[in-house]
Give the backbone structure.
Amino acid sequence: MSTNLSKREIVLNIYGKTGFPQKEIVTTVQMTLDVIQKALADGRNVELRNFGVLEVQKRKARIGRNPNKPKDVVVIPERTVVKFKSGRILKQLLKKIDLSSL
């Protein structure tokens, strides 16, 4: 399996397919990510059809344990997290991955 996909690779991929100036692509990609980030920070879910949904969820406070000191009880406070649910087309593509390559 290859390494993680970076924002730079996304820009270069779009540049290779469109020929648009890289500076404009960088700006557009960053603006897109900023809009998604702002929506999530405002508590809104982000739905990208056939790709997936980024859902804002609240995790309840709970009691945890320090693995190095199992007798110590640690209170994990309530917090907000983002959960990703893949869309239909992405699910189909993921089924085709050779699990032995991961």
Remarks:
- Residues 1-44 form one domain.
- The two ends are 6 Å apart (CA to CA).
